[in-house]
Amino acid sequence: MSDLKLCQGTSCHTYNTKDRLKGSKDNKTFQTRRRSSFYYGGGNFCSLNCQNDWFNDFGNKAIDHFFGRTTEPKHLTEENAWIKDYDWRSDDEQNRYYFINGITREQRIITREQYEDRNYTLNIS
Ligand SMILES: [Zn+2]
After folding, report:
1. pTM greater than 0.70 (yes/no)
2. How far is the CA of 116 from the centre of ligand 1 (A)?
3. N or C: which terminal CB in the chain sees fewer CB atoms within 10 Å?
């Protein structure tokens, strides 16, 4: 029981679902969800609703406090705009996989091994 995590959603206990209703017959309450793991918000929230509730309550403060608010647009330049793609219609295994540059649209053929290698990239940073 002790290694279960509680959902960090600020209103989790207010959602009237059967699994949140706990306690003995004459002493029932809706309670914050407890699980061994959660899928949302880095393992902190039981649902997208709870994640959104938290963000609506604290998101502005968190952005300002922990990272600093983004005040200028970030730029992804040509040399880092390569993404992997493949042509599923191609019968030619040698030319099926490629990088395509999102800005210049240049294509460069790669092998299947290079395509599947998550660390293989043409991007500089
Ligand atoms: Zn929740």
Report:
1. no
2. 36
3. N
